[in-house]
Amino acid sequence: MEAFFGNWKLVSSENFDEYMRAKGFGEEHVQVGNIVKPVISIYQDGERVVVKLKTSFISSENSFVLGEEFDENIVGKLYRSVVNLEGGKLVQTQKWDDKTSFLTREIQDGKMILTMSYDDVVAVRTYDKIEI
Question: From its phi and psi, is residue 69 left (phi > 0), alpha (psi between -120 and 50) or beta?
Protein backbone atom coordinates (compact mmCIF):
# COMPACT_ATOMS: atom_id res chain seq x y z
CA MET A 1 0.00 0.00 0.00
CA GLU A 2 2.81 2.42 0.87
CA ALA A 3 4.02 2.44 -2.75
CA PHE A 4 0.91 4.47 -3.66
CA PHE A 5 1.51 7.17 -1.05
CA GLY A 6 2.78 10.49 -2.36
CA ASN A 7 2.00 12.99 -5.11
CA TRP A 8 1.40 11.94 -8.69
CA LYS A 9 1.14 14.11 -11.83
CA LEU A 10 -0.58 12.95 -15.00
CA VAL A 11 1.89 12.44 -17.86
CA SER A 12 -0.15 10.49 -20.41
CA SER A 13 -3.75 9.58 -21.09
CA GLU A 14 -5.28 7.11 -23.53
CA ASN A 15 -8.99 6.97 -24.44
CA PHE A 16 -10.06 9.06 -21.42
CA ASP A 17 -12.49 11.11 -23.51
CA GLU A 18 -14.38 8.00 -24.67
CA TYR A 19 -14.44 6.65 -21.12
CA MET A 20 -15.96 9.88 -19.82
CA ARG A 21 -18.54 9.96 -22.62
CA ALA A 22 -19.49 6.33 -21.94
CA LYS A 23 -20.08 7.19 -18.27
CA GLY A 24 -22.41 10.03 -19.26
CA PHE A 25 -20.27 13.11 -18.69
CA GLY A 26 -21.17 16.12 -20.81
CA GLU A 27 -18.91 17.34 -23.59
CA GLU A 28 -17.69 20.29 -21.49
CA HIS A 29 -16.38 17.94 -18.80
CA VAL A 30 -14.87 15.66 -21.46
CA GLN A 31 -12.97 18.55 -23.05
CA VAL A 32 -11.71 19.87 -19.70
CA GLY A 33 -10.77 16.33 -18.64
CA ASN A 34 -8.54 16.03 -21.69
CA ILE A 35 -6.80 19.38 -21.12
CA VAL A 36 -5.99 19.37 -17.41
CA LYS A 37 -3.01 17.57 -15.90
CA PRO A 38 -4.21 16.61 -12.42
CA VAL A 39 -2.01 16.04 -9.42
CA ILE A 40 -3.25 13.22 -7.21
CA SER A 41 -2.10 12.97 -3.59
CA ILE A 42 -2.56 9.67 -1.79
CA TYR A 43 -1.81 9.23 1.89
CA GLN A 44 -2.89 7.45 5.05
CA ASP A 45 -4.83 9.22 7.83
CA GLY A 46 -5.29 6.72 10.63
CA GLU A 47 -7.13 3.76 9.15
CA ARG A 48 -8.39 5.82 6.21
CA VAL A 49 -6.77 6.28 2.83
CA VAL A 50 -7.16 9.81 1.46
CA VAL A 51 -7.09 10.59 -2.27
CA LYS A 52 -6.96 14.28 -3.25
CA LEU A 53 -7.21 15.42 -6.84
CA LYS A 54 -6.22 18.92 -7.84
CA THR A 55 -6.37 20.65 -11.22
CA SER A 56 -6.55 24.25 -12.33
CA PHE A 57 -10.35 23.79 -12.60
CA ILE A 58 -11.42 21.54 -9.73
CA SER A 59 -10.27 19.96 -6.51
CA SER A 60 -11.78 16.94 -4.82
CA GLU A 61 -11.06 14.71 -1.88
CA ASN A 62 -12.26 11.23 -1.00
CA SER A 63 -11.30 9.08 1.95
CA PHE A 64 -12.08 5.47 2.59
CA VAL A 65 -11.20 2.37 4.55
CA LEU A 66 -10.06 -0.53 2.37
CA GLY A 67 -12.89 -3.00 1.87
CA GLU A 68 -15.65 -0.65 3.10
CA GLU A 69 -18.20 1.04 0.85
CA PHE A 70 -18.22 4.83 0.67
CA ASP A 71 -20.02 7.60 -1.21
CA GLU A 72 -18.07 9.39 -3.89
CA ASN A 73 -18.96 12.58 -5.77
CA ILE A 74 -17.13 13.28 -9.02
CA VAL A 75 -18.16 16.57 -10.66
CA GLY A 76 -21.76 16.09 -9.61
CA LYS A 77 -22.05 12.36 -10.28
CA LEU A 78 -22.68 10.26 -7.18
CA TYR A 79 -21.19 6.79 -6.83
CA ARG A 80 -21.16 4.05 -4.22
CA SER A 81 -17.59 2.75 -4.24
CA VAL A 82 -15.34 0.23 -2.55
CA VAL A 83 -11.54 -0.08 -2.84
CA ASN A 84 -9.60 -3.26 -2.12
CA LEU A 85 -5.91 -4.09 -2.21
CA GLU A 86 -5.54 -7.09 -4.51
CA GLY A 87 -2.13 -8.44 -5.46
CA GLY A 88 -0.45 -5.08 -4.85
CA LYS A 89 -3.08 -3.21 -6.89
CA LEU A 90 -5.76 -0.82 -5.63
CA VAL A 91 -8.96 -2.07 -7.24
CA GLN A 92 -11.98 0.22 -7.05
CA THR A 93 -15.54 -0.67 -7.97
CA GLN A 94 -17.92 2.27 -8.62
CA LYS A 95 -21.68 1.68 -8.77
CA TRP A 96 -24.50 4.02 -9.76
CA ASP A 97 -27.93 3.59 -11.35
CA ASP A 98 -27.46 -0.21 -11.73
CA LYS A 99 -24.17 0.43 -13.58
CA THR A 100 -20.62 -0.55 -12.58
CA SER A 101 -17.16 0.69 -13.53
CA PHE A 102 -13.75 -0.48 -12.38
CA LEU A 103 -10.58 1.50 -11.64
CA THR A 104 -7.29 -0.27 -11.01
CA ARG A 105 -4.20 1.54 -9.78
CA GLU A 106 -0.83 -0.19 -9.90
CA ILE A 107 2.80 0.81 -9.65
CA GLN A 108 5.01 -0.11 -12.61
CA ASP A 109 8.60 1.11 -12.98
CA GLY A 110 7.98 3.90 -10.45
CA LYS A 111 4.88 5.15 -12.26
CA MET A 112 1.26 4.84 -11.18
CA ILE A 113 -0.89 3.32 -13.90
CA LEU A 114 -4.65 3.92 -13.62
CA THR A 115 -6.77 1.64 -15.81
CA MET A 116 -10.46 2.54 -15.95
CA SER A 117 -13.12 0.38 -17.55
CA TYR A 118 -16.84 0.76 -18.13
CA ASP A 119 -18.75 -1.54 -20.46
CA ASP A 120 -16.34 -2.15 -23.35
CA VAL A 121 -14.46 1.16 -22.97
CA VAL A 122 -11.01 1.13 -21.36
CA ALA A 123 -8.88 4.19 -20.58
CA VAL A 124 -5.34 4.25 -19.21
CA ARG A 125 -3.75 7.20 -17.43
CA THR A 126 -0.10 7.26 -16.36
CA TYR A 127 1.26 9.35 -13.49
CA ASP A 128 4.82 10.23 -12.44
CA LYS A 129 5.65 10.60 -8.76
CA ILE A 130 6.58 14.20 -7.93
CA GLU A 131 7.66 16.26 -4.96
CA ILE A 132 5.51 19.21 -3.94
Answer: beta
